[in-house]
Amino acid sequence: MYLSLIVLAMATAPLLSAGPAAQTQESRMDRSTLRELAQRRGILIGAAVSTNAFGEARAAREQPYLDILARQFNILTPENAGKFANLAWAPGQYDWSTLDAMFDFAAKHDMKVRMHTGVWHMAVPKWIDPAVMTPAQIEQALKDHIFAVGKRYGDRMAYWDVVNEAIDDKTFGLRKTVWLEAIGPDYIAKAFRWAHQAAPKAKLVYNDYGIIAGGDKANAVLELVKQLKKQGVPVHAVGFQCHLLNGERHSRQTITDNLRRFSDLGVEVHITEMDVAIEKFEGDRAAQIQTQAQVYRTVLEAFLATPGATVFQMWGFTDRHSWVNNFCKRPTEAALIYDRDYQPKPALGALMDALAGR
Ligand code: XIL
């Protein structure tokens, strides 16, 4: 028996002493998480956090949600909890409870926060009403709101989507919103300046959709950011939402060429809300899920090839909690990287491969 122990010891000794070096590169990578791989690339990888799922999970009814969130990601965005209408139920009356809990969760798990969103044409509180408020009152209400959020979380948010979706899809001019009507075209510059005063440590972002692959709208955003920079407005990053909901398949080169125009302006580039709906792809569901993995990979590779690209975020991580199911009116959509039972999909492996460069 002693003999066999000695033989065993001799057989295993080189392996043990060689430690991780004896493992193949691949097996080491396979045990990595997205956040570890991202950290090695010097980027942040994250997901939007659903208010409902977060609440359920904290009540221990949906534990995998928080486990995966903390294990895989090093940045998060409140999906809805940071929107104006969800915070300020009456003028100056705020319910911070959900946001506070998300910020605490992020701090506990060493995750950064991308705050979302300051000025948007949606999620406007009902009490912002041009029928009963003067333009000056509406401007003051927006200013107060930005200061309220900035003062409370300014030291804890890494990034803040200060202005969201300001460009119109058809005219490529400024979208007609309550803010444009009351404050005028300067509302964008003003919002960024207020945000910077309130939260000087946060990096401030302009965020929009439909701009990942160039085109008229992307050109309009590029021009907007160029003008803001020229005026000395504190805008530090551009967020490309990247909701690919209609079977879009852009090439890596197309995306990188577009993103690079932005980083050339001296702003960071973020992918902020990526999801890839599958039902418009060819083939059966298994083939669609594979195509989806390819699309995730292509966008991440294009992002990694762009200087100044710093944050890559998806609009959730599990098909169980994805806005796409409702938004596309396709209840069986599956746009994210885990399925409804929290099982990884090929897209998760594709993102890991892209981060690991294999
Ligand atoms: C969406 C949320 O995911 C939904 O739950 C909500 O009902 C509507 O808003 N662009 C954005 C996000 O900037 O805030 C939107 O989020 C999705 C599109």
Structural commentary:
The protein is an alpha/beta fold. Helix content is 46%, strand content 16%. It has helices at residues 2-18, 25-30, 34-41, 51-58, 63-72, 84-87, 97-108, 135-153, 178-183, 187-198, 216-230, 252-263, 285-304, 324-327, 346-356; strands spanning 44-49, 75-78, 88-90, 93-94, 112-119, 159-164, 203-208, 237-240, 243-244, 268-276, 309-314. An eight-stranded parallel barrel has the order 1-2-5-6-7-8-10-11, surrounded by seven helices. A two-stranded antiparallel ribbon has the order 3-4. Strand 7 (203-208), helix 11 and strand 8 form a beta-alpha-beta unit. It is globular, with a radius of gyration of 22 Å. The N and C termini lie far apart (45 Å). The structure holds (3S,4R)-3-hydroxy-2-oxopiperidin-4-yl beta-D-xylopyranoside. (3S,4R)-3-hydroxy-2-oxopiperidin-4-yl beta-D-xylopyranoside is lined by residues 79-80, 164, 209, 241, 273, 323.
Order of helices and strands: HHHEHHEHEEHEHEHHEHEEHEHEHH
Mean pLDDT: 93
Strand line-up in the sheet with most strands: 1-2-5-6-7-8-10-11
Categorize the overall geometry.
globular
Sheet of most strands: 8 strands, parallel, barrel
Layout of strands and helices, then pairs:
Elements: H1 2-18, H2 25-30, H3 34-41, E1 44-49, H4 51-58, H5 63-72, E2 75-78, H6 84-87, E3 88-90, E4 93-94, H7 97-108, E5 112-119, H8 135-153, E6 159-164, H9 178-183, H10 187-198, E7 203-208, H11 216-230, E8 237-240, E9 243-244, H12 252-263, E10 268-276, H13 285-304, E11 309-314, H14 324-327, H15 346-356
Parallel strand pairs: 1-2, 1-11, 2-5, 5-6, 6-7, 7-8, 8-10, 9-10, 10-11
Antiparallel strand pairs: 3-4
The protein binds (3S,4R)-3-hydroxy-2-oxopiperidin-4-yl beta-D-xylopyranoside.
